[in-house]
Structure formats: structure tokens, C-alpha cells
TrEMBL record:
<dbReference type="Pfam" id="PF03446">
    <property type="entry name" value="NAD_binding_2"/>
</dbReference>
<feature type="active site">
    <location>
        <position position="173"/>
    </location>
</feature>
<feature type="domain" description="6-phosphogluconate dehydrogenase NADP-binding">
    <location>
        <begin position="3"/>
        <end position="158"/>
    </location>
</feature>
<dbReference type="InterPro" id="IPR036291">
    <property type="entry name" value="NAD(P)-bd_dom_sf"/>
</dbReference>
<dbReference type="GO" id="GO:0051287">
    <property type="term" value="F:NAD binding"/>
</dbReference>
<dbReference type="InterPro" id="IPR008927">
    <property type="entry name" value="6-PGluconate_DH-like_C_sf"/>
</dbReference>
<keyword id="KW-0560">Oxidoreductase</keyword>
<keyword id="KW-0520">NAD</keyword>
<protein>
    <submittedName>
        <fullName>NAD(P)-dependent oxidoreductase</fullName>
    </submittedName>
</protein>
<dbReference type="GO" id="GO:0050661">
    <property type="term" value="F:NADP binding"/>
</dbReference>
<feature type="domain" description="3-hydroxyisobutyrate dehydrogenase-like NAD-binding">
    <location>
        <begin position="167"/>
        <end position="285"/>
    </location>
</feature>
<dbReference type="InterPro" id="IPR015815">
    <property type="entry name" value="HIBADH-related"/>
</dbReference>
<dbReference type="InterPro" id="IPR006115">
    <property type="entry name" value="6PGDH_NADP-bd"/>
</dbReference>
<dbReference type="InterPro" id="IPR029154">
    <property type="entry name" value="HIBADH-like_NADP-bd"/>
</dbReference>
<dbReference type="Pfam" id="PF14833">
    <property type="entry name" value="NAD_binding_11"/>
</dbReference>
<dbReference type="GO" id="GO:0016491">
    <property type="term" value="F:oxidoreductase activity"/>
</dbReference>
<dbReference type="InterPro" id="IPR013328">
    <property type="entry name" value="6PGD_dom2"/>
</dbReference>
Amino acid sequence: MAKVAFIGLGVMGYPMAGFLKTKGGHDVTVYNRTTAKAEKWAAEYGGHFAQTPQQAAEGCDFVLACVGNDDDLRAVTTGENGAFHGLKTGAIFIDHTTASAEVARELYTAAKSKGCGFVDAPVSGGQAGAENGVLTVMCGGDQADFDKAKPVIDCFAKFAGLMGEAGAGQLTKMVNQICIAGLVQGLSEAIHFAKKADLDVPKVIAAIKGGAAQSWQMENRWETMNAGKFDYGFAVDWMRKDLGICLKTANDTGARLPVTALVDQFYAEVQAMGGNRWDTSSLIARLENADKK
């Protein structure tokens, strides 16, 4: 058992922190900007809650975070009353936020200057993956820090691997999001085409899902996409945030992402339709919305 803090109790962080308690048996303290949510978590899981990230981190062996973006991450780490001000020497900070590689490297350096470890560890698997404890975790940092962190991460992960030095976890998550963008657009067009061609969509999917066209998106989203239901996963607003990071990094590195840039604009159209909180499979809605104009 270790003394652990978890910062950020959103749809991902709340169950992740829960697994640290129920599966890991750790002594867990949580922090959330909305204190009522932290109080609810503590009552549900029998842990503790703190009033600031610094207070949550004090005396902990591991501090984990899952917040919104680079600015949120800086605020809860190096900002006023941030967790880094409470880290003890030798503690490991594990960041599950999907953020930039730049902020990961920045916080890695800041942690090392305090005699602490830092692992950037963005996750994939969505809300369902978090609630079922089967996330994929892509990590960046030092091997020794990762080796210490992995048993903690394993409380809510089906896979956790070290991709390289600091920032490599975030870069790997970008690769993941680039793949998803293209896959969802392709599946959207395929289902839309099948409907227009008067095909039986369930029969079509049954015929192709075992072959080269198969994907996680097809397996898990074709039915809800076909039904026009988009309340089952990662929100469009967050996907656009992630794709923005991908496109900026591509510009910095000289990578070319023409399809990703196009799909990002398609998501902007979904936002304009009021789909900010729809899940990413809602790309099909812009195709079908065009028919109504």
C-alpha cells in the first residue's frame, strides 16, 4: 500500500481514483476544483479529500492527475497551491492529462529539480475504459520512474508501456487521436453511403467487420452512429482540443496531416450544429445534416 493523491475527478479521473482504492488498496486523497465532488468520492470510496492540490500531494509517494489541458495542468502542479509545492523528495508525479509534449517536458524538468519523478501518461479507452479499469496508458519519462509508477497505473489499466523519454507518452497519444480521426470519418462515410445505396446497414457491417475494414470504432460505434445517437464516448470539444495539439506539433516537426486537418474542420461543423458534447462518432451527423438543407 502506498500513499497516493489523485487530482481531477472528471468522467475519467473519478473511477480511476476509485480503482486505486478498491483494486490497489492504497491510501488515497483526492482533490477536485468542485469540492462537493471530492467529498462525494471520499464518502463513496472511504478515502480523503483535500482543499488544494498542494495539500493533497503532501507526504504522498505518488500523485496522479487527470485535468483538462496544459493551462489546467500548470495550475494544479506549479501554480499557486499546486501539487509540486507539496511533493516530498522521491515522489513520482503521474500525469494522465492529454496535453502537449512541451508541458510534459517542462514539468519533468521541474519535478527533477525537486528530486522527484515525472511520468507523462495519457490514456485511451474513454469513459467506459476508465469505469471498467481497462485503459491503455502511453508513458514518457525515465525507466526507473516508470517502473515505480507501473504497479499504481496497473490498478486501472489493461496496458501501460514506456514509449520513450519525457513527452513520448503525449506524442503517442497524438498518434492515437490521428488514427481515430481518420477511422471515424471513414466509418461515417461508409454508413452514410450504405444508407444512400438502400443497403441493410446491419447486414453490411456483419459482412465486413471480420475483414480488413474492421476497427474498434466499427465494433463499438456503428450501431449508435446508424441510429443517430451520440452520447456514448469522448466529446467533440475534447477531440478538437486534442487535434489542435496534434496539428500544432505537426507544424513544429514538419509532419503533414492533411486528413487530420480536414477532419478537425468537420468537427468544427459538428460544434456549429450544437454537437459540442456529442461523442466523436457524430461526424456522421454532418453528412446527414447536409441532406436536410
